[in-house]
Specification:
Blueprint: H1 3-26, E1 32-36, E2 52-56, H2 60-70, E3 75-78, E4 92-98, H3 107-117, E5 118-129, H4 135-151, H5 162-168, E6 172-178, E7 183-189
Parallel strand pairs: 1-2, 1-4, 2-3, 4-5
Antiparallel strand pairs: 5-7, 6-7
The structure holds S-adenosylmethionine.
Length: 190
């Protein structure tokens, strides 16, 4: 996806409440932090100053845009795939994912990778739009997903990582529903 276009499309949502949600979520990041699918680096301004951030982003244009931002923060950005993270087990204090499990081809595999690279007691911070679990809206999101997948670079409107999170057995599994049930914000501890 074109990084400049992504930032232009997201700008109104950042202003309405996405920026505030990023700020709230990332205030819990600490220590050595991995961000998967870091996109154009829109989270970078919100990390606490003492975090050491490594971003993994497979898309060249998105990564270039984030590299322009990363220079202003304590951050590195590299090419990589969340389904096969190039890090040893239990390497990170915090892992962050925002609006990313909707796009990753095998979200279960990526979640297993996140769990693997987190230290015991480490924190996984996650913000996702999800399939709203009501008959009409859920069905509508199912119907819209094939077209949306092509328009929005592989994004699914009808996913929800809750079951995978439960299966992996994070110690605490707090989440909050946002956007009238169309999104969730999680703070998970391994
Ligand atoms: C909707 S964007 C979100 C970007 C950013 N996280 C944000 O909050 O603005 C989805 C991102 O996931 C990335 N992505 C897709 N497949 C991925 C994978 N297998 N591993 C890591 N990132 C991936 C895309 O390249 C894109 O940057």
């Amino acid at each position: 996806m074109n990084g400049l276009l992504y930032d232009i499309v997201l700008a109104p949502f950042e202003a309405i409440n996405l920026g505030r949600l990023r700020e709230e979520l990332l205030s819990h990041a600490h220590g050595k932090t991995l961000e998967i699918g870091s996109g154009t680096g829109l989270n970078l301004p919100y990390y606490p100053q003492d975090t050491m951030i490594i971003g993994i982003e497979p898309d060249e244009s998105m990564r270039q845009k984030s590299l322009e931002r990363a220079g202003h923060f304590h951050a590195q950005v590299m090419a990589g795939d969340a389904m096969a993270l190039p890090f040893p087990d239990e390497e990170f204090d915090t892992v962050v994912g925002t609006l990313v499990f909707c796009t990753i081809p095998d979200p279960q595999k990526a979640m297993e990778e996140v769990h693997r690279v987190l230290k015991p007691g480490g924190t996984f911070l996650l913000l996702e739009h999800v399939r709203k679990n009501t008959p009409v809206m859920g069905k509508l999101l199912d119907v819209m997903t094939p077209l949306w997948f092509h328009l929005a670079d592989g994004c699914h409107l009808n996913r929800d990582p809750s079951d995978t999170i439960k299966r992996l057995g994070f110690k605490t599994q707090e989440y909050r529903s946002i956007w009238k049930g169309l999104g969730k914000l999680w703070m998970l501890v391994k």
